[in-house]
Automatic annotation (TrEMBL), chain B:
It comes from Longimycelium tulufanense. Keywords: Membrane, Transmembrane, Transmembrane helix. This is Membrane protein. The lineage of its organism: Bacteria, Bacillati, Actinomycetota, Actinomycetes, Pseudonocardiales. Signal peptide: none annotated. Its main location: membrane.
Length: 328, 254
């Protein structure tokens, strides 16, 4: 795959409105003993962004996030969150951030309202949000946490993280395992907080979640960020696809050469032709005018831009040397 | 440090201790049984083994059960539940979280100890010669068993196994109490080095006004005699505290 299609904007910081960087990480590395979970990550999250960090299990998302949160010190790299060092300046930083860990627990014998009360008493926030109504947990107030369903626990998790209406919110897989209704509620809260000015950094392996919520996203794989940018930037890193059935009277060799086609193959054992294209409209126009001129009908014709899923699978199948850098 | 979150967490820990039936039953039944035992047999025991020995055994027993074992079990249970990790993702400092967690069992133990010793004094008709030393022993002892509990959590994978991992210090403390009062001079000296031995000695001297071998001590001498065992106990607090701080885990091992 070649780099930089015409759709990718020139990568200079000056071309975007200058906003304060809320998270600034350069060359971030985190190791557990001899295993390096995060292997040189650069991450810049601007104020007011909802930023999604995508990746498979074990890609290093949680380690990266927990390092940004100050749960552990990086083994190398430069790191500033709201202008502060998350480990040494934790005391100043924590009142300004909300954290929803991927795996975190409650004291099961406390009730929902006792848990919220405890968290409130442990926060310095002057006007905490009414999080139980925000997350539709009011009717479960008197129930012991150990009796909550998985979705309710996760919502209580989010409730505690957003209680003080933080400037910066970390969400580690906020909707994994949630039913559609709980997921929708979580998205609503994230969108509302964003409107209220909260910057959000979330990890997820639901591509739809990243598409729905985020302004910028990065795909992590094996401890590195492989693709980064706005959704449009990221989609542009992967070619568009055209496919059709090879007409019976036509040998594959006689297919036309299209201007921006990078790869053209007939799927093994079938007569399905698959093209990857750097310019969908141009290639499609050329293909259709060729078939019109020739009087050939292309059966099962499909043309589509790359989806986030394509990019994602592209990244997983790629070796690190081929990784794509997109900046916008 | 801000005191409000410590108190909030302490209150919630007390609530959790109350709702854990095993811990709650133990916390109420143990002093009750001991209380009845003292009320009915104190004089007999006191005259047979010496008041100092009886009182110091009682105190070490309370501190070990209500403070040491309870703290170890509670902290490990919170860690297992990933509740410690949550508390650490909030605003509170590590010290705040720690104090809130270990405060309630320590407080519980101190209250139990004071109540039982009061019953002892009233029923047994034998009041402490040097109450200040006895109070000092209770407070320092509680601090030491709290520090040892934090250290014990390092080698305790889950709440159930706390029954086993607390055994070494549990046994050592009782061996020390026995060695302190019932053995010869050599054994007594050794007992002071063992965690619990120093506390037993200070309590015994504070209560009876006598040295371990029964030789009477003046008021000033009682304080002087308490210095070495207190120094050793403080050393244990520092040692266990530092080691716990070095190796303490906020999350279960994965």
């Amino acid at each position: 795959m070649t780099e930089g299609t015409g759709l990718v904007p020139d990568g200079s910081e000056a071309s975007v409105p200058v906003k304060e960087l809320v998270i600034e990480a350069t060359g971030l590395r985190c190791a557990y003993g001899s295993f390096e979970a995060v292997r040189g990550v650069d991450l810049h999250v601007r104020q007011g962004d909802v930023y999604a960090l995508l990746g498979t299990n074990g890609a290093g998302k949680t380690t990266a996030l927990e390092t940004l949160e100050g749960h552990r010190a990086p083994s190398a790299g430069h790191l500033r969150v709201l202008g502060l060092d998350p480990v040494t300046e934790r005391k100043q930083l924590r009142p300004r951030v909300g954290i929803m860990l991927q795996h975190s627990g409650f004291a099961g014998d406390l009730t929902v309202s006792e848990t919220v009360e405890l968290w409130r008493a442990m926060s310095t926030c002057r006007q905490p949000l009414n999080v139980l109504s925000l997350l539709n947990l009011e009717h479960r107030e008197k129930v012991q946490v150990k009796q909550l369903s998985g979705g309710e626990r996760r919502r209580l998790d989010l409730a505690l993280a957003v209680m003080s209406k933080p400037e910066l919110l970390f969400l580690d897989e906020p909707t994994t395992g949630l039913d559609p209704e709980s997921r929708r509620r979580t998205w609503q809260v994230v969108r509302w907080l964003h409107e209220e000015g909260t910057t959000v950094l979330l990890t997820t392996h639901y591509l739809e979640e990243a598409e729905q919520l985020s302004h910028r996203l990065a795909i992590m794989h094996e401890g590195r960020i492989r693709v980064e940018g706005t959704l449009a930037d990221v989609l542009a890193t992967e070619p568009a696809r055209i496919s059709f059935t090879l007409p019976p009277d036509l040998p594959a060799a006689e297919l036309p050469r299209l201007p921006a086609t990078r790869e053209c193959r007939v799927r093994e054992g079938t007569d399905l032709v698959e093209l990857s294209s750097g310019d969908l409209q141009g290639d499609l126009t050329a293909l259709l005018s060729w078939s019109n001129t020739r009087g050939t009908r292309l059966a099962r014709l499909r043309a589509s831009h790359a989806s986030l899923e394509d990019v994602f699978h592209g990244v997983l199948g790629r070796t690190p040397a081929e990784s794509v850098e997109v900046t916008a | 440090m801000n005191i409000k979150p410590v108190l909030a967490l302490g209150r919630s820990e007390l609530r959790l201790l109350r709702r854990n039936h095993v811990v709650a039953t133990l916390a109420i039944a143990l002093p009750l049984v001991l209380g009845v035992l003292i009320a009915t047999r104190a004089k007999e025991f006191g005259n047979a083994f010496g008041w100092g020995t009886i009182v110091s055994s009682l105190l070490v027993f309370i501190l070990v059960m209500s403070n040491y074992v309870t703290t170890t079990t509670a902290v490990v249970a919170r860690r297992e539940d990933l509740f410690l990790k949550r508390l650490r993702s909030g605003e509170s400092s590590d010290a705040t979280v720690m104090l809130g967690l270990v405060g309630p069992p320590a407080l519980l133990a101190v209250i139990q100890a004071v109540l039982l010793l009061a019953v002892m004094a009233v029923v047994g008709g034998n009041s402490p010669e040097n109450p200040a030393l006895v109070v000092l022993a209770i407070v320092v002892g509680s601090a030491m068993f709290t520090a040892l509990a934090m250290l014990t959590t390092v080698v305790t994978p889950n709440a159930d196994s706390a029954q086993i991992t607390t055994m070494p210090f549990f046994m050592a403390a009782f061996a020390a109490v026995f060695m302190s009062g019932q053995g010869g001079e050599q054994l007594h000296r050794w007992s002071l080095l063992i965690p619990g031995g120093g506390i037993a000695d200070v309590t015994s001297v504070g209560w009876s006004g006598n040295r371990w071998d029964g030789a009477p001590l003046g008021f000033g001498e009682q304080f002087v005699s308490a210095l070495p065992p207190l120094a050793v106990t403080l050393a244990w607090i520092v040692l266990a505290g530092l080691a716990a701080r070095r190796w303490f885990r906020w999350e279960p091992r994965r």
